[in-house]
Amino acid sequence: MKLTRTAQINPALFGVIPLVNVLFLLLVFHALSSNFVLQPGISITLPFSTFALGPQHNTRIVTVTSAPAPAIYYRDEKFTFDGFAKQLASDRGRDRTLIVKADHDAPYSLVVKIMNQGLQSGYSVVLATSGESK
Length: 134
Description:
Elements: H1 13-33, E1 60-64, E2 72-74, E3 77-79, H2 81-90, E4 97-102, H3 108-120, E5 124-127
Parallel strand pairs: 1-4, 4-5
Antiparallel strand pairs: 1-2, 2-3
């Protein structure tokens, strides 16, 4: 008795399966090797602006919160204004750009004091804003 196969194997599958496998591996490799744009730290609400400055490289970021007691965060550490001024003066680097990320309810006088301290220490100061209106 001779048995016959009822299911036919499509020869085109032998070319498509390796192609799908390679594309899947490229997708996984790209997903794992790409830089994720995450900004760890304190969650703040930036004020809205329609104007945008291009990306800045090798910057120092200062975050100002607007809790009942405003706080200054620099390099993932909480500082008083005097401690921040000393730390900023002691930092040396080639690129001297300071980005101030202040909550929209942060005290204006504190933001101006931080800007003045940055300018006094030789930094160019940039105020961070959000491109999305809330």
